[in-house]
Each structure stands twice: as C-alpha cells, then as structure tokens.
C-alpha cells in the first residue's frame, strides 16, 4: 500500500505556487472568451480586466461564421496542417532509420545537419523564402505554406524518432531480414508500429506549432483561396473602425480546438518527449 504524502509546509508552498502558475496561464483564455461576448462600447468603456456584459453578444460568434469566412479558412487550416503532419511523419521515420540503422559514411553528418534546423527561427527565413517562392511561381499556393511548415517541423521529428529508434534491439530487424523482409516492408510493418509514442508526439506538436502560424501565411498569400484560420480576424478590421467583439470571438474559436487537443493528448506529448530525449 502506498502511503499518502503528508502536507508539509514545503509541499503546501509548492501546490500554491503551481496553482498561481496555472491561473496565470489560463487567464488569457478566460479573458479572450469573456471579451468575445461584449460589444465594442463595453470593451472600450471598461477599465477592468474582465467585463460583465449587459447582454451576452452571441451575435459575435454568428458573425464570425457568416462574415469572417470562418469555415473556408478552417478547412484550409485543417488541410495544410494534416498534410504537413503526414509528410513530417513519413520523412522523419525514413530519415531517422537511415541515420541510425543504415551504415554509410555521412549518416552522422546528415543527422546533425537536420537537427541544426531546430536552431533557426522560422520567421528569420521570411524574406529568403519569399524570393525563392516568387522565382518558382509558387507564392499564393498551398506549397508556399506546406514547404516551410514541413521544413521547420522536421528537425524535431527526426530528433524524437531517431532517439527512439536507436534504443530498439537489432535482433528484431535481423530476424526480419532472415525471414526475407525487405527494407521498406521492415520500416512499415516492424519499425513504425514500435514508434507509436514518438510519432504521436511529433504529430501533435507539428499540428499545434503550425495551427496559429500567421506571419508566413500573411507574407506568402494574397488571395483568400489558401488563407488559413488566423485571417478570419482581419475580416473584421476596417480602415476606421473594427468589430472587436467579433475578432475576439474568432480568436476564441481558433484557440479552443488547440487547447482541447492539448488537454486530451497531454500525456502522449510528455511521454513521447521524455522517451525521445532519454533514449536519444
């Protein structure tokens, strides 16, 4: 039987500190939802952190769907992020297996170069990428978002998967080769199923990192065809006046799916990162 931990003064201080941290972290979301039910007048007239609206403006959320092209931008976000996740997972598995299991002279150097991508800020490449994409005539297309999203998510994917692959026993792969299993069948049928924890982590973190990305989308896209969810906020921004209540509603609708996904899958993220870091 496990003994219950006693509430020592140090443990009480730690619990209070964690509660304060949790409140500080959650307050921006509470503030965002609170302001999404207020009118422009109440938002500007209020001097407090939170507002008690005289009438909860459900119209803000209705306008977000009807006037903000919310569903169209949501579809684009889902499409771009899903494709990015699938491509990152595929390349991460192949790259990690090639660097950690296959014997060739430059395997260590290639893995190091891939991991160096974790040190480059994504927005530091805005201008070079724009010049390259413009010369290739792929600005304002799906590729203008998909290529940088994959490129900057790949180093993290390679780091987690390669660290886990290095801990797998060689005997499993040797037995598969003896039975006549080819390299690609070995990767798909044997290695990939054993990478469930890091792959789930890579998928979740890739999705969350790219979900609210705005600077690259704003730089590379012009027409509404491939614009993503953050652009819904701009639909309520005018030259002289903006509908701030609708903007807060759009931001709340954009943030909630990511928050819910993180809460539900938090254990998988922590487990995958811990396994990849320790075993790498």
Radius of gyration: 23 Å
Largest beta-sheet characterization: none
What is the element string, with H for helices and E for strands?
A: HHHHHHHHHHHH
Shape assignment:
globular
Mean of residue pLDDT values: 84
Low-pLDDT sequence parts: none
Structural class: mainly alpha
CATH class value of the domain at 69-238 and 255-279 = Mainly Alpha
Notes on the structure:
- The mean pLDDT is 84.
- The protein has a domain of 195 residues: Orthogonal Bundle (MetI-like fold), CATH 1.10.3720.10.
- It has 12 helices and no strands.
- α4 runs parallel beside α7 and α7 runs antiparallel to α10.
- It has 280 residues and is mainly alpha-helical.
Quick gist of this model?
Helices cover 69% and strands 0% of the residues. It has 280 residues and is mainly alpha-helical.
Secondary structure: elements and pairs:
Layout: H1 9-36, H2 40-45, H3 59-66, H4 70-100, H5 107-116, H6 126-135, H7 142-165, H8 170-178, H9 183-191, H10 196-211, H11 215-220, H12 244-279
């Amino acid at each position: 039987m496990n003994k219950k931990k006693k509430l020592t003064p140090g443990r009480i201080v730690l619990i209070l500190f964690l509660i304060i941290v949790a409140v500080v972290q959650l307050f921006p979301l509470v503030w965002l939802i609170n302001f999404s039910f207020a009118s422009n007048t109440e938002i500007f007239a209020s001097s407090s952190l939170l507002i008690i609206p005289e009438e909860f403006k459900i119209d803000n959320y209705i306008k977000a769907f009807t006037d903000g092209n919310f569903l169209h931008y949501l579809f684009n976000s889902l499409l771009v992020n899903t494709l990015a996740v699938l491509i990152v997972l595929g390349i991460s598995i192949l790259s990690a297996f090639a660097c950690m299991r296959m014997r060739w002279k430059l395997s260590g150097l290639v893995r190091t170069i891939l991991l160096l991508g974790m040190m480059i800020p994504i927005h530091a490449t805005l201008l070079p990428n724009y010049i390259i994409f413009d010369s290739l005539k792929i600005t304002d297309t799906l590729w203008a978002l998909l290529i940088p999203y994959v490129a900057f998510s790949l180093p993290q994917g390679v780091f987690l998967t390669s660290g886990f692959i290095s801990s797998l026993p060689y005997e499993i792969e040797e037995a598969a080769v003896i039975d006549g299993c080819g390299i690609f069948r070995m990767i798909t049928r044997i290695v990939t199923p054993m990478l469930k924890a890091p792959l789930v982590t890579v998928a979740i973190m890739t999705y969350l990192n790219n979900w609210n990305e705005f600077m690259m989308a704003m730089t590379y896209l012009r027409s509404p065809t491939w614009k993503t969810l953050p652009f819904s906020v701009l639909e309520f921004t005018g030259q002289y006046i903006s509908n701030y209540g609708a903007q807060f509603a759009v931001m709340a609708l954009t943030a909630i799916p990511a928050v819910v996904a993180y809460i539900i899958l938090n254990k998988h993220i922590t487990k995958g990162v811990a396994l990849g870091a320790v075993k790498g």
